[in-house]
């Protein structure tokens, strides 16, 4: 595996920083001009609520809500951009759209806002994609995501906390898994090299290639019999004399 795929660029920091700053800018607009963008969020199964599929990740209820989403987004977007550069833009774009659409279908009758669904998309995609690639660095990244953000799994279930959109979290988790299956990463696929693919391969020393002549015809290897290479018995120039000794037991005869 060639680790040259992992290259640091300005986008590794620039993309997540721009995304998070834009979220704060939108919230600043609400405070500065007394806007209320909540009604632009996802309202399930209504025509007007469809706009929230695009707008909802950029709308937050308060500073705490925005702050809690900003830190994970910075970390996860940077990891996505560094390890999955080719797929990052598509994962973010379609992650927002698909998770929003699923939320619109399964959500309760309320406005669903916040970038937490995108956070679940990123966690899910990074985890499942790393396991699928079987590449040790990406598997390690998957395990790190589980250790840091594994607790998020509880918030995909209803009634854990009333104020959160568990539907959006569940939609993000499902979306991340779907995208991990759709978007392939052939650059991380382990390439199997056979002996004859190596530059130092010598066909004359290969036992299999020796079975073929210069025309590609199969031939039997000649077995050369080496006669008298090893004597069948050991010989010595010194005479050997054998003496037969009768075995006598050192026992007393019984008295009569």
From TrEMBL:
Which Gene3D superfamilies does the entry link to? Answer: Rhomboid-like
Q: What processes in GO biological process is this protein linked to?
A: proteolysis
Q: Which UniProt keywords apply?
A: Hydrolase, Membrane, Protease, Transmembrane, Transmembrane helix
Q: Tell me what organism the protein belongs to.
A: Flavobacterium soyangense
* InterPro entries found in the cross-reference section: Peptidase_S54_rhomboid_dom, Rhomboid-like_sf
Q: What is its main location?
A: membrane
Top-level taxon of the source organism:
Bacteria
Cellular component (GO) terms are:
membrane
- Ranges in coiled-coil conformation: none
> Where does it live in the cell?
Membrane
Recorded hits in Pfam families, A to Z, give: Rhomboid (PF01694)
In this chain the Peptidase S54 rhomboid domain maps to 52-183
Membrane topology designation: Multi-pass membrane protein
What name has this protein been given in UniProt? Rhomboid family intramembrane serine protease
- Which SUPFAM superfamilies does its entry note? Rhomboid-like
Q: Which residues cross the membrane?
A: 12-30, 66-84, 89-107, 113-131, 138-157, 163-183
GO MF annotations in UniProt: serine-type endopeptidase activity
């Amino acid at each position: 595996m060639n680790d040259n795929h992992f290259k640091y660029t300005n986008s590794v920091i620039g993309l997540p920083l721009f995304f998070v700053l834009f979220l704060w800018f939108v919230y600043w607009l609400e405070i500065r001009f007394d806007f209320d963008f909540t009604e632009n969020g996802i309202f399930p199964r209504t025509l007007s609520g469809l706009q929230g599929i695009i707008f909802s990740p950029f709308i937050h209820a308060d500073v705490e809500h925005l702050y809690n989403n900003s830190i994970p987004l910075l970390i996860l977007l940077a990891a996505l951009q560094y390890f999955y550069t080719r797929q990052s833009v598509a994962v973010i774009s379609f992650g927002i759209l698909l998770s929003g659409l699923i939320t619109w279908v399964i959500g309760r009758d309320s406005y669903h806002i916040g970038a937490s669904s995108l956070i679940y998309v990123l966690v899910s995609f990074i985890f499942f994609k790393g396991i699928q690639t079987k590449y040790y660095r990406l598997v390690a990244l998957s395990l790190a995501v589980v250790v840091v953000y594994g607790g998020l799994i509880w918030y995909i279930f209803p009634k854990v906390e009333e104020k959160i959109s568990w539907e959006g979290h569940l939609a993000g988790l499902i979306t991340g898994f779907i995208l991990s299956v759709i978007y392939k990463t052939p650059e991380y696929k382990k390439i199997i090299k056979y002996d004859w693919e190596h530059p130092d391969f010598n066909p004359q020393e290969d036992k299999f290639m020796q079975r073929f002549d210069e025309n590609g015809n199969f031939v039997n290897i000649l077995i050369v019999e080496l006669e008298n290479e090893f004597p069948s018995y050991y010989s010595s120039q010194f005479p050997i004399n054998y003496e037969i000794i009768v075995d006598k037991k050192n026992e007393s005869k019984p008295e009569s």
